[in-house]
Amino acid sequence: MDALMLSRLQFAAATMFHFLFVPLTLGISVLIACMETAYARTGKPVYLRMAKFWGKLFLINFTLGVVTGITLEFQFGTNWSRYSAYVGDIFGSLLAIEATAAFFLESTMIGVWHFGWEKLSPKAHALVAWLVAGAGNLSAVWILIANGFMQNPLGFELRNGRAELTDFVAVITNPWAWNQFVHVVSASFCVATFFVAGISAWHLLRKQHVELFTKSMKLALFVGLASTAIVALQGHVHGNLVAKIQPVKLAAMESHWETTKNAPMYLLQIPDEKGEKNLVQALPVPSLLSILAYNDPDAEVKGLKDFAPADRPPVGITFIAFRVMVGIGTLMPLLMLFGLLKRDELDKYPLFLKALIFAMPLPYLGMQAGWVVAEVGRQPWIVYGLMRTADAVSPITAGQAGSSLVAMVLLYTLLGVAGAYLMVTAARKGPQDA
Prior knowledge:
Blueprint: H1 3-18, H2 22-42, H3 45-78, H4 81-115, H5 122-151, E1 156-159, E2 162-165, H6 168-172, H7 175-205, H8 210-245, H9 247-253, E3 260-261, E4 265-272, E5 277-285, H10 288-294, E6 300-301, H11 315-341, H12 350-358, H13 361-376, E7 381-383, E8 387-388, H14 398-429
Antiparallel strand pairs: 1-2, 3-6, 4-5, 7-8
Helix pairs in contact: 1-3, 1-14, 2-3, 2-5, 2-7, 3-4, 3-8, 3-14, 4-5, 5-7, 7-8, 7-12, 7-13, 8-9, 8-11, 11-13
């Protein structure tokens, strides 16, 4: 493999590993703030124990997210220096704002939160918890605005062989970025609620700390059902935007080869990328693809053959990842709805509690699949329609890229094992006695 492919593999591995920790940080910080608010309002010790227990897991997860995020950003200089030089005027400013305005605030507030249990009043400590949650999600805003520029570049002019910022307002109001923010944050709540529900189910099956984990379960089910519904509804809105701005990505998501009006959606398909067709294409739903893409059954949906082969993303990967994301997104609200309906008698449904334990990875897999659709589906562009990925890689050798990839995989494997051990140990131990 050449330096380009090795650099792509390295960035993909680093991003996907880092993103195991980001969504839980975004979602569970808000749940903890809700628990602290309940304690400040009622004075019931159970809410304090809840906040401390889930807070310990939050801190482990946050620490791993910080470590993996730092190494990820280094790659813009080591492996993608031509990209950084070309769009650094825009991309660099957004990352700088994220670090100074959001990440530093979040880190500072986490320190106050962690060491302030005995020094702050319950109301003041709850306020700090909300500042932690707000800063974390503010950080996501700036990261997703940066990614939004890569998906839908706005607010720039090409000067002196590089993209220079001309309209900061256009960059930060990019509709792609804000659609993506709602989708990612609501999906992060799915991760957090399934995480809380799964661990709560494990303890409830063993009749441990029943009051604490019953309340945790109910909070997770309420928030989980709302967030899964938002993910599904906003996913449709985001799909409309994909059809408008990146029609070739939409075609790859559906393995749609021929431009068609009243385009059906096939429930059973097997893409044949080399043959520019589908080996299997069965169970059509008339006009459904036109409706989902443009909210119009008569709308024309462009096919992959309308685009030059060099401008098409990898169809197989994009197609499969999209179906994994949609399948998981369909199953999650069903689980949350059943749990919410039976929330006062969950002890009568041990199989459902066991299902929640095994369902904990589902939102993680769904988010990873979603990012595969977003990033692989954008190829061959690193900045859509502006800069190709092949033109963005640093002038390094395959040996340099390969050795750094091996070192990173070994380091991340060690971090992953250590992080999993700490999380599982803390989760199994349960909350401290009052």
